[in-house]
Amino acid sequence: MGTPRKQRGHIEERSNGTFRAVVSAGTDPFTGKRVFLKETYGTYDEAEVGLTELLYKVDKGKVDKGKLTVMDVLDKYRAVVDPKQKRRTKVRRDQLIRDYLEPRFGGDFKAAKVRAEMLENYYALLQVCRYNAELRVNHKAKDHTCEPFANSSIRAIHFILTAAFSRAVKWEYLPVNQPALAEPPEFEQGMPDPPSPEELAPVINEGWRDLPWGMFLWLTMLSASRRGEMCVLRWTDIDWKRGVIMVERAGDQYAGQVEEITTKRKQQKRLGLDAYTMELLTMYREYCERQCRRLGVKLRRDAFLFSSQPDFSDALKPNTATQRYRRLAKRNGLRSTRLHSIRHYSATELLGAGVDLRAVQGRLGHTQGSTTLRFYTAWLERTDNAAAEVLANSIPKPDFAARTPRHAWEVLTATLRADIESGKYQVDSELPFARDLATEHNVSVGTVSRATAELKNLGLIEAKQYRRARVIRQYIPPVAVDEAG
């Protein structure tokens, strides 16, 4: 006689008269506990049908692992993607999980309970105050100041959840990717606000008081490179014969150390340098060699251009450059104190000078020219004025004289203008008093004043306070000239 099969599911009657179908779905891979699927029905017959459906789900592997928590999903996701992501990406991702997801969805919060509506409400709370990541926040406390969380950071949280839950669905731990159904806040495109050449001049002048710092700012503006790319620039990256600088690496600062990594999108740039910049680099190299000789060492061939060490053995820390520029910009009253605004300045000035978009795109290291136009160029007053001149010269000029008068003051202006042109009022003669003109033409004195002001604008009369208007010239219509001259 064979061993009886273990019962996989059953129907139990509840105290309120309903029936519940219960099916064993195996063991949860994370917690090691048994997982049960439960559905409640109104009648016993409905529960039998539901029991069959639940058994079918278990057999096909389409089962909701009810014990799986949100943090379990995130941990499993991180274990898979960690080898593929850069350190900076992982640090930012883990910080968002630690500060904004774990306080709300940590502990025993089940992944199956996450709903799109719940996430959208949470995003809305973060837009009001970033401290709403905690479950209970006293916004009326004296020491509390609400700080709205940036939409870009909320979108980053949303994409982390979406990616993690997408893996869980692929691995058949969850039936639906609920975060993917939620709608994150709209992307807020910041308006670039680079300094103008006039605003940047005192910053550069002060920067040149320290030759390495001045050279760093000059080369950053000229090459439009990112701060990490400039910090790990070596003397071997300069082609002295061709006057070219090669940007092939970037610097990533973490835990006080600078690691050389690939550039953003793994691009390599060869940027041309002008003769004056090459002279500055020659002078700066001599400065570095003299400094190393005073230390009793020789400047290494592959030494860094910019360093916090006197022998240029270590790369300059990107955060150090950012903080120093911020202090410098504040002292000189710049609107934007971000070092990154220099890239905006370079892109704006190049495009404003008429440089081809593809050349500017390549210099900044963008894969698409639309990125350069959307994020790295600002409105230029001189370019806008030039555009206004072009449009003003191309649009047909209005002929106000040919327009049919509509208002009372326009009719009176046309009448008086005709009288002046016909000779009724000669040059140096005076027009009647305003009250007499008002009576003659059956209009108000204000209408006469408006018409007189228009004739003055046309240069036909001279009008002064407490004096009658005097005709200074008669209108002479332009003479048409044929093509023969």
Automatic annotation (TrEMBL):
Family annotation (SUPFAM superfamilies): DNA breaking-rejoining enzymes (SSF56349), Winged helix' DNA-binding domain (SSF46785)
InterPro entries associated with the record: DNA_brk_join_enz, Integrase-like_cat_sf, Integrase_catalytic, Integrase_recombinase_N, Tscrpt_reg_HTH_GntR, Tyrosine_recombinase_XerCD, WH-like_DNA-bd_sf, WH_DNA-bd_sf
Organism: Kribbella koreensis
Top-rank taxon, per record: Bacteria
Family matches, as PANTHER family: INTEGRASE_RECOMBINASE PROTEIN MJ0367-RELATED (PTHR30349:SF41), PHAGE INTEGRASE-RELATED (PTHR30349)
Gene3D superfamilies (alphabetical): 1.10.150.130, Intergrase catalytic core, Winged helix-like DNA-binding domain superfamily/Winged helix DNA-binding domain
Entry protein name: Site-specific integrase
Family classification: Belongs to the 'phage' integrase family.
Segments forming domain Tyr recombinase: 190-392
Keywords: DNA recombination, DNA-binding, Transcription, Transcription regulation
Boundaries of every HTH gntR-type domain copy: 406-474
A Pfam family of this chain: Phage_integrase
SMART domains registered for this protein in UniProt: HTH_GNTR
Presence of the UniProt keyword Aminoacyl-tRNA synthetase in the record: no
